[in-house]
From TrEMBL:
The lineage of its organism: Eukaryota, Fungi, Dikarya, Ascomycota, Saccharomycotina. It holds the Pfam family Pro_isomerase. GO terms for cellular component: endoplasmic reticulum; fungal-type vacuole. Keywords: Membrane, Signal, Transmembrane, Transmembrane helix. This is PPIase cyclophilin-type domain-containing protein. It catalyses: [protein]-peptidylproline (omega=180) = [protein]-peptidylproline (omega=0). Residues 52-223 form the PPIase cyclophilin-type domain. Residues 1-19 form the signal peptide. It comes from the Eukaryota. The chain crosses the membrane at residues 281-300. GO terms for molecular function: cyclosporin A binding; peptidyl-prolyl cis-trans isomerase activity. InterPro entries: Cyclophilin-like_dom_sf, Cyclophilin-type_PPIase_dom. GO terms for biological process: protein folding.
Length: 317
């Protein structure tokens, strides 16, 4: 009897431990009052729509993330991300200017999701080659910003210096992800939609390698460039605030609670997104989008396999 009681107790303890480890963080685990280091000047606002399969409603649906980009601390990372967010046409043959393909983040996959860690996406030439607007790879910029809060937008590299391309990741740990500091360049921050990231995208079904059971993809992106009359001066002022913060002056820090300005800018992007998704020319049911993801990806890859050796230039349209 003692052995049976011990085994039952051991099983119960293991189940409890498993339940704790398996628990994904939620938006309630995020301390929105915690003071973090001040943000650099914001050069762009970006809205990212993500289409995923909602198992509770048994259909594909779209959720949105809104992020600020920091072009004064990571100008190359931001330039690359913005160009791919807007999308452009790649010329396949100079003798045939009409022979082009669309290249960008739209319809690219969120190909790995690691709960209580990060989501990974941005592979615009899946299975073919790394890509950036600067070439296959581009160099690291200073590891200026830290992964000290959830919602950090960072470059995904290959684990070695200067191996950045189109791939990115977004962190989800409520307490931050310092293990990525000085290894990956932070160039943005989620300012609205962190709840969508933690409550929805994080909870889609995945396999042991973090690959979603049903495709998760970027459905649309909207970029709003911020006019900054004197970027150098704004950056200098930011560095002064950062120095004060590092000396213990928390009054110059920032919290994750959106400011009135951020909420206004986010509302403008949401209005633009609503108009885009409901325009007769672009209004397509989410269910159809989900069904077409695999087909579109295969067709895209087939085109590239035929023409990849002929790519000579790209242009923004």
């Amino acid at each position: 009897m003692l052995l049976i009681s011990f085994l039952i107790h051991l099983l119960f303890t293991l189940l409890q431990c498993y339940a704790v480890e398996d628990k994904h963080p939620t938006i309630r685990d995020v301390d929105f009052r915690k003071i973090h280091s001040p943000d650099p000047p914001v050069t762009h606002h970006v809205l990212m729509g993500i289409v995923y399969y909602d198992s509770t409603e048994s259909k594909y649906t779209v959720t949105e993330l809104i992020m600020d980009l920091y072009g004064t601390t990571a100008p190359y990372a931001v330039e690359n991300f913005v160009a791919l967010a807007r999308g452009f046409k790649v010329s396949m043959d100079p003798k045939s200017p009409q022979d082009t393909i669309d290249l960008g983040y739209k319809r690219s996959l969120i190909d790995r999701i690691f709960p209580n860690d990060r989501i990974i996406g941005g592979d615009v030439l899946p299975g073919l080659a790394p890509y950036s607007v600067f070439g296959p790879n581009f160099a690291d910029e200073p590891f200026f910003l830290k992964h000290d809060r959830p919602g950090r937008l960072s470059l995904l590299n290959k684990g070695e210096p200067d191996s950045n391309d189109s791939n990115f990741f977004i962190t989800m740990k409520p307490e931050g992800s310092p293990e990525y500091d000085d290894k990956h360049v932070v160039f943005g921050q989620i300012i609205m939609g962190l709840d969508n990231l933690l409550e929805r995208i994080q909870n889609v079904k995945i396999n042991d390698e973090g690959v979603p059971a049903k495709k998760v993809a970027i459905s649309h992106m909207i970029v709003d460039e911020v006019e900054i009359p004197d970027k150098d001066e704004k950056h200098r002022e930011y560095l002064e605030r950062l120095a004060k913060f590092n000396e213990g002056d928390l009054s110059v820090g920032t919290a994750l609670v959106p400011t009135a300005t951020q909420m206004r800018d986010a509302k403008n992007l949401e209005d633009e997104s609503f108009a885009l998704l409901n325009h007769p020319a672009t209004s397509v049911s989410i269910g159809i989008i989900g069904l077409l993801l695999c087909y579109a990806l295969m067709k895209f890859r087939r085109q590239l396999l035929i023409h990849s050796k002929k790519i000579v230039s790209f242009r923004n349209d």
